[in-house]
Amino acid sequence: MTEDWKKRAEVKRDAILAAIPKEWRIENPPNEKQVDVTGKFVQQFLSEREVEITETTADDIAKHTVSGTWKAEEVTRAFCHRAALAHQLTNCLHEIFFDAAIADAKALDEYYAKNKKPMGPLHGLPVSLKDQFHVKGVETTMGYVGWIGTFEGKTGTGKEKKFESEMVKELRNSGAVLYCKTSVPHSLMTGETVNNIIGYTWNPKNRNLASGGSSGGEGALIGLRGAPVGFGTDIGGSIRIPAAFNGLYGIRPSTGRMPYEGMANSMDGQNTILSVVGPLATSVPSLRLVMKALLAQKPWLHDPLVHEIPWRHEEERQILEHTGAIGDASKIGKLSFGVLRSDGIVNPLPPVCRAVDTVVKALEALGHEAIPWEPPSHKTLLDEGIKTWFFDGGTDLKSAFALSGEPMAEQISFYSSPSLKEFTASQIAATNVRLREIKKEYMEYWNSTAEKTSTGRPVDALIAPLAPFPAARPKMYSYYGYSTFVNVLDYTSVVVPVTMVDKWVDRRDEGYRPIDDTDKKVYESYDPEIYDGAHVSVQLVGRRLQEEKMLAIAEYVGKALGM
Amino acid sequence: MTEDWKKRAEVKRDAILAAIPKEWRIENPPNEKQVDVTGKFVQQFLSEREVEITETTADDIAKHTVSGTWKAEEVTRAFCHRAALAHQLTNCLHEIFFDAAIADAKALDEYYAKNKKPMGPLHGLPVSLKDQFHVKGVETTMGYVGWIGTFEGKTGTGKEKKFESEMVKELRNSGAVLYCKTSVPHSLMTGETVNNIIGYTWNPKNRNLASGGSSGGEGALIGLRGAPVGFGTDIGGSIRIPAAFNGLYGIRPSTGRMPYEGMANSMDGQNTILSVVGPLATSVPSLRLVMKALLAQKPWLHDPLVHEIPWRHEEERQILEHTGAIGDASKIGKLSFGVLRSDGIVNPLPPVCRAVDTVVKALEALGHEAIPWEPPSHKTLLDEGIKTWFFDGGTDLKSAFALSGEPMAEQISFYSSPSLKEFTASQIAATNVRLREIKKEYMEYWNSTAEKTSTGRPVDALIAPLAPFPAARPKMYSYYGYSTFVNVLDYTSVVVPVTMVDKWVDRRDEGYRPIDDTDKKVYESYDPEIYDGAHVSVQLVGRRLQEEKMLAIAEYVGKALGM
């Protein structure tokens, strides 16, 4: 068996590559020879028209396809081509089904020709999916060798290559075209994307760095414009990390807003901190477009965990109507922000500090205000919250690895510790109570900021790092506190790209005195030479179920930054 | 210690009685001498004006107090008096704080006089609370002797008699007057209300029977009109059972609609099936009034588990605007109902069958339709759901009883079994996954009814028994499936009173062939002589988070029944 898994992984890896048409095959230069494969590098393999299509945002593509000025088939072919290049350059795909996609696109064009109207608001829009979604015709391996040829590790279920996740149906109903599934780290429990099938997913903007995780394939693919919009999942940062590392917008909605029904998962049934599903894209209107389209499908009628909350235009109206007038805070209404410069556990690296400053200054220049964020202890919150990832003592993951005998990646070796034990019901209950208390305390802190703002309202959003580094270097992702505190609180968070690392500006402080060993490890991972050119992002955190408002604010902030 | 608990219980029991002014003390005739203590019996101890006030529904009282035509103090005094009588006749109170209530009422009257406006939509309205709410100045024992003089069993917390639950604050902000806390069964895990402090809470309409549980004090108190509206909680039927047994309306909202923050509970932290809080009252507009008032306080800003869903008039508008025209289904729009006559596990007793028929006939006569409800197996659903009550193997309850050494009531003796073991995290996760699958299957069954209705829509609500019996006889509550399936699904359910047992009509079927021993036990508990005159109710079950719509339908059905 030990050698068997290597062979099975190789066969699968080859099958993925083999699904790319010969004419789209390229020579992939070594990472060190071609660190940045975005922009001009990838464009050389594409026609002008393909570049035009693939560098259009999802919302603008939809305007063309919905109005019929662009054909679904042409758009789909362009993205299939670019996704094929992206995979060859970064290892970002687990499943390729271009033929099915082109057939679907043709059917959409025929539908349009016949009915003189689009199938739905996503008519003809290619959408990529993390390899947790089940799509008919292809597998879901989630990076596990033992899942190859199975349905979530089981055989003979009758669901293999047939069953579709709820959101997949809803995307199809809305007219979206599905064409590929993207890479994940096996287990989903790390911010780097690595598994024994496709290897390591690289950051296309800087191939010294991780594309992020666990939705790292989405990050790399959309970062290279191999998809205009795609869906990831997030239990500790897994949508936002790849969004941030790849210069994208990405939203972690609160639990119960978007349909997770029928997706594969790790440690399914742990229901203290739930993984959520949400989109990544190159613009905020793209995120809004797909979320609105999905909510228009009334997912609460098909997913028992989705709340009946349709898209609430009222929550975004005031900000959206005045985003054009970014010079005039009096129109949009003055906004108040909290600023978290450090959580006191690990300090962000110089480029991240600069990104936070950049956002604050841009907003202040427009007449808004930012006050220091002095919340209840993040350490307490994180210590309690992270317990949930270990409730089952690694039982679920170990059984997935045992299916094939493949080894765990070093990045998740903490799950192989023999000292891990299953929590008892009483221990889980105590954690749940403590987490509810922590949420209550944090919520009341948020309320209390009304006393510190000049608006008399609590802050509208929190500006915070998403990770201590712009992106992680391989095997150096050692601290998750900045992304994970949001999951513990179940808040809404949108990643906003801010700048890029400039080795001449973002220098190391050689006199830096680390807080402790964890902080030291992070600081020591920073090398301006290696990081030069990497994307730097922040997150804007809102209260629970504030998706409309937070997207509006993120769009406004993006415009303020000129992004 | 063994004898000590008896003494502590007696002291507390006496203190409750002692809080009733001497002039309100009465002689309580033996149950068998005076089976029904409602109506004329209790009225004999009240003035005409007191009867007028206390027999007005909460929504009509609020109209008077909000417009200033009735004074808060007069209303409060009347309800204090009647609550004092109710306690003496049924043992329905754990805490009495009439003096504080009268002082609060006077302050409200002064506020009104000074500001020429009410404090809020509940200005001057007395509201009773189940003894899980913390209210300053009084204890919360939840029926545990070991909790007397503590905060949830702990001493030195600084919260004793000071801390208030979130909803208590919101009720006060809305102008409500709090004056008593009502009895519960220790553990909260039974449909009868019994504990070692106050003994047994009797059904005022028929003192052969239970007032229900676990919000049994609420049921008895409101049943006797000692409160116009009050709040209970429900994890397996605990709001609806006392509502049904006492001829009241009561709603079990879905999880996340009403604020539970800061309340005492059993097995706190079990978060697979959550207990929810909701009102019981003598009319639907009374339930609506308090729910709307609470949502107007934006509880999602103070309770991390409440969803931001304000009252949605749109969901009730069409039905409400035409409830006057109940003869005309074309105006209200034809409604479709599912009818569950039996869950196949235990058959409802004759009066309950008659109540279900009565509702169906009344609706059909008005032009609506009812189709048989043939859902996925309730047995499977219940077997899985009820596991959640045993996740901790009784650890929490045993520790509460151990505080004083008091014995568990026979009604919950299943928790003292030495064979109970704590579930592991993996076992809990497997249960959570299975329950999600069960919910999904049930939801799709509901969707599928669109193919069977004449409206082309899925059914608007399900008509179902709330319990197999009109009320339980002491120690004979042996089956909870009719109430509990709603909690497992997290659906909205409103209890509607329908009729009363008539021993001449609701006869035993001496040839009845029971399904099995459980069914036999229930059937054998039915004795028309004992049950004569008892309330008989049904529940109207709606999908998750359908509170507005379900209240509108319940009000409509109530009018159709002439209740």
UniProtKB/TrEMBL annotation, chains A, B:
It catalyses: a monocarboxylic acid amide + H2O = a monocarboxylate + NH4(+). This is amidase. It is an enzyme of class 3 (hydrolase). Residues 74-551 form the Amidase domain. Substrate binds at L188, S214, I235, G236, G237, S238. PANTHER family: AMIDASE, AMIDASE-RELATED-RELATED. The active site is at K130, S214, S238. Keywords: Hydrolase. Its EC number is 3.5.1.4. It comes from Clohesyomyces aquaticus. GO terms for molecular function: amidase activity. Belongs to the amidase family. PROSITE patterns: AMIDASES. Transmembrane segments: none annotated. It comes from the Eukaryota.
